[in-house]
Amino acid sequence: MPSEDTKERIAKVVDVGRVRAPVALERTTPHETSAILLAQTILHYAWIPMIIYVGFTRSNPQPSLIKLISPLA
Amino acid sequence: MASPVSPINPYTPLSTAPSSSTNSNSTSVFSSYLGRFSKWRAELGLPNPGSVENLQKEVKATHLTNYAFDGGRADLTKSMSMNPLFQVTHSFALGSQTMAPSYNFGAIYATENVFLQGGVDHDGNVNARVNQGWSNGHVSKAQAQLSQTPGHNLLQLEQDYNGQDFNLNLKAVNPWPTDLTGIFVGSYLQSITKNFACGTEWVLQRPTPSTSELVATYLAKYTSTDKSWIATAQLQPAGILQATYWQKLSEKVDFAADLQLVATPMRRDAVATLGAKYDLRLSTFRAQLDSTGKVSALLEQRFTPTFAFLMSGEIDHFKNSAKVGVGVMIESSALSPEEMEMQMQQMQMQQLSPPQ
To answer: Any stretches that span the bilayer, and where are they (chain B) (predicted)?
Structure first.
């Protein structure tokens, strides 16, 4: 049975050896800065609406909105 | 720095060239040689060989490897306008052994110089394409795939230049400007004679700033004089060869053969594919036979201008398995017949008087 002194020394060594878990990085590569992530998110949500907007405003007989949603109209 | 000298007419003898210093003399000699070289090159009259991506375009259109599917499929296409082309597509796929049930929404907008395409999945994955054509044979393209899971995003930038008898194509996949990581592809294809073209493609992969790997591929393409058959070959010095042969047997029948050979020290493998495509008035039928023991067929039958029916079947004789696919394609137009007439007339007028 180790003495109190030994137990204390062991506890100190274990404490020092316990590496603090690093703060979890929210980025996976050094390239993914918050600006790049913002640009990706904007592109992700806005690309299809942008094409639909461009197609609606520039096509020759201006189609009505219902023609986009219903396949039968 | 030499004083600016006007370019010399390539046909005047060089002794009459004005020269104030030896420096301007050498640049004028160089520019005269350049002028004579490009004049000789233009007089050869070599055709443009197409890009490296389209090297096997005819073979890929004849073989059904890119078109076969299994399970049920329905494609509803709605075109809102023809002249600036604007189409919306809903695709449903169900019951496939290899893919999960999926829904895909796509939109296409195209004018003469600009092409925009976007698609979104039932999972929320977005794929986007932009093509912009400039006036002098340059085409800039960009393609992106964005998914909900981070780290799976892809961006590809491409610049394509079609010269008179050559094609130069540069691609960058996920490039990062400061440390130049990513994948870079450069390809060059040049017509040597009226029938023969050869070129190279170099792929440089740089996943981190310190590691890079370069793979070179050598390409050759031979087109017959009457353009009825095309033979191509792609060779990587590591021991990978892909050779294809395509022939148009008649205006309704195409035939294509494809051989892929891997002869590296680690792996020795070969696959040969023979396929034929029959273009009939209301239907297209493709049949294919593989050296891995697969026999496949694909039929696309058009019943009315708006409705087409697809059937795809594949039997693997060595594994004793089969895959069958059935699909419908409905193309409806949001234009009434009068509007459609107006658009056709506009397109014809544009074709008769092309914009400068």
So the answer is: none
